[in-house]
threonine ammonia-lyase
Amino acid sequence: MELVTISDIEAAAKRVEDVAVRTPLLLQTWDPRGTLWLKPENLQPVGAFKVRGAFNAIAALDDAARARGVIAYSSGNHAQAVAYAAQRYGVPAVIVVPDVAPRIKVEATRAYGAEVIEVPIGEHEGKARELAAERGLTLVPPFDHAAIIAGQGTAGLEIAEDLPDVDVVLVPISGGGLAAGVGTAIRARCPRAKVIGVEPALAADVADSLRQGELVRWPQADRARTIADGLRSQPSELTFAHLREVVDQMVTVTEDEIREAVRVLARKARLVAEPSGAVTTAAYLFHAEELPPGKTVALVSGGNADPALFAGILAG
Amino acid sequence: MELVTISDIEAAAKRVEDVAVRTPLLLQTWDPRGTLWLKPENLQPVGAFKVRGAFNAIAALDDAARARGVIAYSSGNHAQAVAYAAQRYGVPAVIVVPDVAPRIKVEATRAYGAEVIEVPIGEHEGKARELAAERGLTLVPPFDHAAIIAGQGTAGLEIAEDLPDVDVVLVPISGGGLAAGVGTAIRARCPRAKVIGVEPALAADVADSLRQGELVRWPQADRARTIADGLRSQPSELTFAHLREVVDQMVTVTEDEIREAVRVLARKARLVAEPSGAVTTAAYLFHAEELPPGKTVALVSGGNADPALFAGILAG
């Protein structure tokens, strides 16, 4: 299987530089250890790192494919990212969402000019593939795609540029596109640094898979237990092949740790993180003994917390 | 009276570049007008733009003055900024705070290694001047000082670099150090842009003063009514002289508008802003008809919202 290379990520960086935010590394001066930097990808347009991959995938299309348009299936941040990136490039976009998706996310996706099609949950991937074939649309998958992995990897390139002597990079893992890309960039640029994947203990299928040396599937119902709703997917063969190469270690965090990390990020870092975006901070705060010491970057992957849920966590 | 110049601000930029965060401009893609960029100074160490001035003032001291130490009086972000900047430069710091200051801010200031002295409210400035004379400490005032104004101005320099064709810059005004510095930078680098000061209607002494052409003093009790506790100060002769030169217009916002802007910043921009930091966004959202059209930067000055207050606003 052909893996994404540092050259692919460098090429992606050129494509996304005018549209994605060059997020700074934020040293957390309240932390007594003094070794925590946050990479606030929640500050990207649409509130998540997902714009990096979406921009890269759409920018790489030829003119004919752009004219026909793109299609994506997602109930979350990927839907908005593809809609936004398509709008920026003037490319028509269709987004297939499960009909249980929060209204606020559906409306936000529509506001970026996409045609939104709602289908019963579980059917959205199939419907997207069917429509892609019917209408000649290019499918932009959420992670199982070299251009997506390379795009997400640009966040890793920036970490390496801003903190070349980084010791530890903490990345959340769900479908694995982000960790695959960031890990590939860090391996190439900061070979001494450890790349550590973080999962909720309730959706720790990747920790399980890496331990067993092969993809282990956890039932959807099990993965759905975590509050971190962006971390309920599982890797594809392509992303898992990357993870085996570039992830040094996994850490799993509890639901209580995730909630506390959301509070700490709001109060001390002044960032609104969704639970999925807070797992890396939870790992730093509550699993120090499992982690190598030294300069640590925690990637805050997104900030699309449901307002009521977020207010509830803050008050809790 | 000698005003701070763009050269002073350029010199300050060199001094603060390794310690203050180079905050990005964040285009707000959810905004239907598509003309709002946020400058998230709440992401600075200690959560406010204040570190820029504090670093610049301390960096400018000679070795003898550094060895003796610095002193500041403040119940708010300036206290933590001076404590943090002094710690970074290895300079002893004394901070005089009113004994009604929130415990969380007192502890944060102490955590940066400062000696914290609590005195009855209203006496903290006097006590600081007394201690400065007794111990030979250099007083670092919150705004009435050229080095502080120049330091705060570095935020304006960054706006001009990142968005050279900016049309409107919205800056909160309290003591006026930030607006004086940012306005001076914008005048020099983007002479076509309008610099617009924002105040709570309940503490609109600067709007009043600029209208009347002289400093008008509002009673402390009146200014204390606003929820924006960082905007209850009033300019000095020095900062007001700058404001007369560089502020094109004032906008005042209501308490409800401030609260709604805090909510919008959290939900759409994924930023935790204190009420004072949200007034510029409130002006953009609710006073469009008073503002010139075009590319607008709203400076989000700080993020040290009291956790309970912030949770209450989000839930409200």
Observations:
- The mean pLDDT of chain A is 95.
